[in-house]
Design brief:
Belongs to the glycosyl hydrolase 18 family. Chitinase class V subfamily. Helix content is 17%, strand content 30%. The protein is an alpha/beta fold and 497 residues long.
Amino acid sequence: NPTHPCDVVLPENINHLYYSFAGISTSDFTITTTHDKDKEYWSRFTALKNKKPSLKTYISVGGWDLGGEVFSHMVQFPGARKAFIDSALSMMSEYGFDGIDIDWEYPAAEDRGGASTDTDDYTDRAPGYLKGFNVTGMEPYVDYFNFMSYDIHGTWDGKSKWTSSDVNPHTNLTEISAGLDLLWRNGVDPSKVLLGLGFYGRSFTLANPSCDTPGCPFNTANNSTGGGVAGECTQTSGILSDYEINRIIEDYSVNVKYDETAGVNWMTWSGNQWVSFDNARTLKQKADFANSKCLGGLFSWALDMGGPGSLKNPNDMSSSDTGMGGANTDGGSDGTGVLYVGPEVLTSPTVTAIAPVDIIFPQDILGSPTVISPESYPTSLEVVWNTTTTVTSGTSTGVSTGTTRYIMPTNIAVPPVTIGTIYYYNWNITNPHVTSTHGSLIPSIDLPPVTVIDDPNPLNETGVSHSPLGTRVINIPPWPWSTGGTVYPNITFNQGS
């Protein structure tokens, strides 16, 4: 998503990150950008290694939108191949990428601009349409094969002579197993295969709301594609992010159907809307499946779509968990969770995320040391002392001992402090239905403890003997303590992934 800054990702449980996608120039076959801000984002993306030095960052070239024609032309000619390879090495060096991911969809696919010679060209020069990939020939030259075990079915099924216009889950362990079997038959090392997890679902509009199980037809009347209603964030018919699916579950109280054999869920709502998807339980199931096949690991598409696996390893999930938690498991059930925003928010005060979200603002480094003189801190202190009181009854005189407790209002003088950095309070938006709102950027300045002397007689009593004076250390909370009457910078929150 070109509007979603990539440097807020917390890569604790991620080993490799792919930036998707770069394109290929049709004029000189060098790697090129696909969005205006790509070059800026490439540097910020690879800088995520500062958060986790062992992280590997890859540039992914291709994707569905690029198609296969430019790949097909590039691999046919030595000069074009050299231009592509040279540009790949150059951009990896310039921007700090550790590797390149080739997402050619698909070699030898005539409906995607491919040619019959692609399979040999790709393999020979790399040093289904699964039939388009000579995986045995490619294996020595690649680190991993990313096995896309999602998008097995979608609205495109209605346009193929091999499939019909029926709703079917876009991921299915039975079909995944059959696809992997083709790799094993060709002697591919399982440790080089990564199993893909989809953090989204494929949606349809049913032709008949009373027929809502896999195999039922989707609506193709009036040249309809059959896709489901576009989501509020993804805004594309036929696909819903995990965030959007979870909101539908909450808003419509739908009955989620779980197919244990296929390892997938589906549900219907609003009469004719249908979607298949993974949640924590089925992601765990797929992780267990990958482990049972000795695969090299897992990957996902895509981090900004959410999913309980975004920052939590599916291997560590509970198989009984049916949640749809968002990108950070400390956050809400369907929101962004904890979001760290960069310093650009201080000059461009807009934050885009999905509520619920806890927005963590960056520190503001001042140009020079600055003295802050806070006002007195209003608080109340508990004062406790032993008392002795002379008691007279008739001709008898005695002494009564006891303890007095008193909550004493006071104002504690706080000495000036010198600071070089300003920190800000978090902004926690808890309402999941908030689409736009405003807040204030309020500083949070730490202050040192203050020593105070106990009042020897806070009640101004007579005839009472107090203990000797004492001192205590009071921890002062971050300043300011009250925001009333003060104008702070305004921050705008907008919903979006």
